[in-house]
Amino acid sequence: MLNNGGVFVGLLVLLLPVFFPNLFSPLGHASPSIFSEWNTPKPRHLPLLKGALQHKTKYGQRSDLWSPLASQGYKPCFDSPTTHVLPEKSEGYIQVFLDGGLNQQRMGICDAVAVAKILNATLVIPHLEVNPVWKDSSSFSEIFDVDHFIDVLKDEISIVKELPKEYSWSSREYYATAIRATRIKTAPVHASANWYLENVIPVLQSYGIAAIAPFSHRLAFEEVSRDIQRLRCKVNFQALTFVPHIKSLGDALVSRLRYPSEKYLRERTSENERQGDGKFVVLHLRFDKDMAAHSACDFGGGKAEKLALAKYRQVLWQGRVLNSQFTDEELRNQGRCPLTPEEIGLLLTALGFDNSTRLYLASHKVYGGEARISTLRKLFPFMEDKKSLASAEERAKIDGKASLLAALDYYVSMKSDIFISASPGNMHNALVGHRTYENLKTIKPSMTLLGQLFLNKSMGWSEFQQAVQEGHRNRQGQIRLRKKKQSIYTYPAPDCMCQA
Length: 500
Hints:
By secondary structure, the chain is an alpha/beta fold. It has two domains: 46-71 and 244-499, no CATH class; 93-239. Helices cover 44% and strands 8% of the residues. It contains 22 helices and 13 strands. Helix 13 crosses helix 14 (302-317), helix 16 runs parallel beside helix 17 (369-379) and helix 16 (341-351) crosses helix 22 (461-471). Keywords: Carbohydrate metabolism, Fucose metabolism, Glycoprotein, Glycosyltransferase, Membrane, Signal, Transferase, Transmembrane, Transmembrane helix. It is found in: Membrane.
């Protein structure tokens, strides 16, 4: 009888994945699987969390937090200082093939316009490669308003939507099958303007066309003229606008964030609690599996999570994660660990945001799903995202398309009163630069300070809050002038801004 029972139990274990696959599948939106690597982690900073949940922000502090930035002595400059005159004859056609996500492609587009200007060439609307991580095949015209792009730049360079028939052979497939004389593969990272003049002009003169791939980060931030720097910013801040349906949906989400339902308003009865009405914060919660694996930090998910991330790291990067040689404590002391949803929630509360704050979550996919976000939601119950604010019908054109989802988040982020990103990255850099250009409040977390504070397990809430506020007093959108070799897309002053 015992043996039969043992056999039965063994068969049951073997058949569990067949009859109950969800128990073993990755975490969805609702609840974690029993045997998943993403079993709900316990809060890592429980004393701070208890202090944050009991915390009540004073009205004066809250009012100051929401106040817009004062003028900092700089204003946007779109136009170059010289008169624009298009040359009578183009040197030929320039094609570029852009890798990466939306924000990396955005920077590539700006550089492509600049290179076409340097070469006196006609730019073909850039080709966006299929994103290898998100499997998104969205084209330029599906994300950006092409006609607006061409119109804004018509006095700067010549742009065509597609090649004329005699060059129709010059396609992505053509360059994928063999070495071609018209393809430029050797453009170094941060190449100078002279490099393009010396290496691409001969190809244009011989064939009338040149395809530059790879192209990401292929134009330097130094050794280019002031006109070219201004042109790059004109592309980024004026020419690149999203397609109408992204802007329309974005405006709808912003309206719902600023003017919530009557039920929501009734839940906040105190006048002090309603001082933030009509305002909202966008949080870019950059905590996907790639980010977690690449950091080599411990995120409190236990042994299963550690093993899963180590395996993923090995498969994806073959051990080329340089910081994996450091301990979690060393990485946190250096500020090299992404903030978890719990940690970003503690940061926001310490800064002065309370549980009545309208928070929009801009994120493609959070590692650990809703279970990982639950602590953040306890601190900020009025937290929204694309799915909670828009109907399935409204999202129909963008669901499953990572670039369009990112474009919607970018648009809403630019309309927010305050933007904060949990960790540095391409979207963080792009929005920091764009909001600097528009003089909008943007909180930049001090990763080193926070890493050290979260390691201190004896610290109480008041001490933590004071340290956070002091450490972030000058990290709320104050202009940082670009240093040599830094990106103009992250630091647009002084290259692309004029003194007011």
